[in-house]
């Protein structure tokens, strides 16, 4: 009797490409903390501009055979404006690359886990200083995330819903001023959950005590 053929659907995978090393380390923490084995994080240091970053992300997705891909960038890193982001959106859609950003820097996303700025902030140092008041020793650098900040993602995990609410409120201010959201991270977070499932951080509880 012929054996019954067993078919298994291929595992969906997600690629996250970041515009700076610190962001890559943060998402690598997320991958480890949440046990997202089908999430891959890569740092792209050679992007000349946003369009080039999108093209490079699409190329990495194709080479790796990933189901979905996201380009994560800071306005300050790529020296982009809100208008340039809007202009790049059709290219991203054509290349099937999601865009997630913070204006001006990733420190904004960290701050939103605690509070929403009262006005639009464009200086990365102002945001970094604000986060440092809430997380002593904080620095938006790879060095921090490789030392004192090794558990940054884990310490912020419980405040994910707060970050989403604060981002929504702050984006309303930013969109009135610039035309685009200042922290476009929630679509990425939702896609990570869709592809990778719910996070399992039970093995990390000791680190939080």
Strand element count: 4
Radius of gyration: 18 Å
**Sheet with the most strands?**
4 strands, parallel
Integer average pLDDT = 93
Identify the strand order in the major beta sheet: 2-1-3-4
- The fraction of residues in strands falls at 5-15%
Distance between the termini: 58 Å
Low-confidence stretches: none
Number of discrete helical segments: 11
Topology:
Layout (H helix, E strand, L loop, with lengths): L13 E5 L2 H14 L4 E5 L6 H15 L3 E7 H4 L3 H14 L2 E5 L4 H5 L12 H11 L7 H4 L6 H5 L3 H19 L7 H11 L8 H4 L1
Parallel strand pairs: 1-2, 1-3, 3-4
Put the structure in a nutshell:
The chain has 209 residues and is α/β, with parallel strands linked by helices.
Written overview of the protein:
It contains eleven helices and four strands; from the N terminus they run βαβαβααβααααααα. It has 209 residues and is of the alpha/beta class. Helices cover 51% and strands 11% of the residues. A four-stranded parallel β-sheet has the order 2-1-3-4, with helices on both faces. The mean pLDDT is 93. The chain has helices at 21-34, 50-64, 75-78, 82-95, 107-111, 124-134, 142-145, 152-156, 160-178, 186-196, 205-208; strands at residues 14-18, 39-43, 68-74, 98-102. α2 (50-64) packs parallel to α4 (82-95). α1 links the parallel β1 and β2. The protein is globular, with a radius of gyration of 18 Å. It has one domain.
